Predict the structure.
Amino acid sequence: AATGRTAAQRRAHGHGRAAPQLRRHRALDPAARASYDSALALFRRRKFEAAESAFADFIVRWPDHPFGSNALFWRSEIFAERGDHRKAIEECEGAIARFPMGNKTPDCLLKLGISFDRTNDKDRARSAFDRLLAEYPTSEPARKIPRAYASQKK
C-alpha cells in the first residue's frame, strides 16, 4: 500500500487487475437472478408497486448486471401501464443510455415511440420508430410499430 490505499481500495477505484473479476463475479451472483426473477414475477402478477420497487432495488444492487436493461424496460412498462408515459420515456432513455447494446434496446425504442405518440410528440415518436427500423429491422419490436408510423415515409 505504497500509495496509502489497500489493494481492495485500489481495485474499488479501478486500479489493479481484480476489478474486472469482481464485476464479473457480481454479475454471476445467484442472488441477482433470484432478485430479478422475483421482480418479474411481481410484474406478471400485476403487483406493479411492488415490482417497481423490486426492479429499482435490483438496479441499485447490481448496476452492471446483464439484466439491468431488462429491469429498466420492465419499469417503463409499469409506468406505461399506469398511464405515466413521461416516466416510461425516462426509463427507456435511461436503459438505452446505460445499456446501448442491451437485449431490451429494441423493445425500449418501441416503447419510446409509443410513449412519445401518447404524449402527442409525433416527431420524437417517428424518430424512435425510425431508429428501431434502422438498427433492428428484423426484430419483433420492429414488427410491432403502429401501422400509422410503419406506413409513413420521411
